Amino acid sequence: MVEQERITIFDTTLRDGEQAAGAGLNWEEKLEIARQLERLGVDVIEAGFPASSPGNLETVQRIAREVRTPIIAGLARCVPGDIDDAWEAVQVAVKPRIHVFISSSDIHLTHQLRKSPEEVMEQAITSVERAKSYCDDVEFSPMDATRTDWDFIYRLVTEAINAGATTINIPDTVGYAIPDEFGRLIAGVFENVKNISNATISVHCHNDLGLASANSIAAVQNGARQVEVCVNGIGERAGNASLEEVVMAIHTREDLLGFTTGVDTTQIYRASRMVSDYTGFAVQPNKAIVGLNAFRHESGIHQDAMLKAPITFEIMTPQSVGVPGTALVLGRQSGSHALEARLHDLGYDVSKEDLGRVYVAFKDLADKKESVTDRDLETLMGEDRRSTGDDIYTLDHVQALSGSPAVPTATVRLIDPEGEAQTASAIGTGPVDAIYQAITQIVDVPNHLVEYRVEAVTEGLDSIADVTLRIEHEGTNYIGRGADTDIVVASARAYVDSLNRLLASKQRATSVMV
Ligand code: KIV
Ligand code: ZN
Asked: What is the pTM of this model?
């Protein structure tokens, strides 16, 4: 059998994905996502933009130290300080990479950089050389490449390779390209850059026209051998090419494309759930590969054909991307072994100690709900993860009253950082507002609620309510999540979670300044 050529999968969920408005991951979550990306088998993890903040540098460093199989890349503008910071962050990695970028289009040069093309060329060369003085593996990106004069790209890329770049990334920064056109640009790079055989060509496509994955595949068909992607397609504005779409297109159409990747596709679903859970960005039901409906067949004709032969309406199996099979549903009578086995199937390896705690929560839920589904278990695990973090405040008691006519009233009791119980009561426009007012009396940090979303995890009136919210404080958004069969309790948990994140990030900022 002919061995297929392998496409390098460069994941930028933790850098470009994290740049998406409101993503706001903390370092523990980034490290867990990086570990999942390692299990997934991506070749490169772009772990962050170290010069953007001391916290970001530290997180990239932690990932570089602990995640040992993939290449760990740090992003840098073409300025000396950024490159030094990127190296400081990634140098502990087994396989470090510095990724430098500079704008190349006339639009950016005129309105953003206010530099001439020759100045940009000079800055790119000296920056690649500086990065190369630290690290053998250097990637260079001409930002807004698809709106740049193609001849200038060829010249810039030639010089970047001469200066030592080993990967040349062609970004469609604003998601402007059309597949055929983008394919021709990549082919043009191969035809016009004489030293191109000394570098790998990469592409980085944004999804403003919904074409990011299509453009990435067109680039692969024209010679690109690295594709930059994000789990669930998150990223700046409309996001980046989605990892699951690009990888599954390569695997499913291996017959046509003739390539493979090093990705263990059965880890895709787990990665998708984790990124959605941690960022609070819901996955749309009709999202390719990982959406709730991606493998559901509603029409009678389709269902009939599926029963006869799944190949009739399924081009890949749910198992191939790790979607858990129709679950054996757990209930009140299920023991801890059954729970452990089901959690294992869902990708959670829980220690004996954790299992004890999760089992108590499971029993509590099973007393309230007739059957506990996979989605319930995933929500339960999310709640467990949040409740075992280093919380500053914990919710000890919450009670709310509402009705018509009635004045919505709430009482909450929180345990403060000194371990003292603090109680407050308030009225509001509704029970959730009353709870927020009461909690705000105890945790007195100015903020305002910019997003509040409640989702029923499963069908049925006994469903868990999963609340996602974002609060804004001094220009930064903080996510909060909370889940419970009682919507009021879930809302209180979510608000306390967001306040804990806000306070923890302020504490970290203070300790960095000291
Ligand atoms: O979209 C873009 O151009 C980028 C670069 C930094 C590669 O994210
Ligand atoms: Zn980007």
From this structure: 0.91
